[in-house]
Design goal:
This protein is an alpha+beta fold. Helices cover 45% and strands 16% of the residues. It contains twelve helices and eight strands. Helix 2 packs across helix 3. The longest helix has 15 residues.
Length: 255
């Protein structure tokens, strides 16, 4: 049996609008546990409750509950259904979102970056947390840029980093060296052009596209979820797999 997926669209909008589960329950005339089931188990409420919730949150009910879309319209809207949130820049992604995604992952955590320095800045215990997830059975794969690769040199020049990107990568790698001793965790180095930084947590994906000449922190971020018939989640995950398969294991510091 497939594990029920949480309703991230509903959760995100409630946080943005400052609406609690209790407030939404009162507005709909139901108990709070029903709203919590909408959030944690992806339950679809009755029509009147959908309309009430959508009006309160100033949203389209088909955005909050994509499964209600008519079968004939589904093919035209699955892309929108995959989209959980769009952020104008990376700093706009709440720290709590990163922590929750990692904490809730049960099967896969995949990371594709060049240096990924910010990843540790918003999660100071990231190496320890990843080790804990790996010990719990989560498959952890971290793919950093090869400091000696041409792709890293090109990106360094494009962003005007004056030759500092390789050292940024080395500094980031040091944070994760203890993961090399943890079963279920792998670290590899890639030399490919990085069109997007990718962060996968089971069936959710955070994509940080790269814009020529811009530091990645100033570029938008897209949060996606895997849905039946969707293409975007699988498109980015396939790109990760291609890069991962061509990457080489990182031997560790001083090896």
């Amino acid at each position: 049996m497939n594990k029920p997926l949480p309703n991230e669209q509903l959760r995100s909008l409630m946080l943005q609008r400052g609406v609690s589960a209790e407030e939404l329950a009162v507005k709909c005339g139901i108990d709070t546990k029903s709203v919590e089931r909408w959030l944690s188990h992806g339950r679809v409420p009755h029509r009147q409750n959908r309309w009430t919730a959508a009006k309160l949150l100033d949203a389209d009910e088909t955005y909050l509950w994509p499964s209600i879309l008519a079968r004939g319209a589904r093919g035209r809207t699955t892309g929108r259904s995959e989209l959980i949130e769009l952020y104008s820049d990376r700093a706009s992604v709440p720290r709590e979102t990163w922590l929750r995604l990692l904490g809730e992952a049960q099967n896969n955590v995949d990371v594709l970056v060049f240096s990924g320095a910010f990843f540790a800045q918003v999660q100071p215990r990231i190496a320890e947390d990843l080790a804990e997830r790996a010990r719990d059975g989560v498959k952890v794969r971290l793919c950093f840029g090869d400091p000696a690769s041409a792709a890293v040199a090109v990106r360094d020049n494009e962003e005007g980093l004056a030759g500092t990107l390789p050292s940024q990568i080395q500094a980031s790698l040091i944070r994760y060296r203890d993961l090399l001793e943890v079963d279920g965790a792998e670290i590899r180095l890639h030399g490919t052009t990085l069109y997007n930084s990718l962060f996968r947590y089971d069936e959710q994906l955070v994509v940080n596209p790269h814009v020529y000449g811009n530091p990645s922190s100033l570029n938008p971020v897209i949060r996606l979820q895997k849905v039946d018939g969707g293409l975007l989640f699988d498109l980015y995950c396939a790109a990760f797999e291609r890069i991962w398969n061509s990457a080489v294991p990182w031997p560790g510091v001083g090896q």
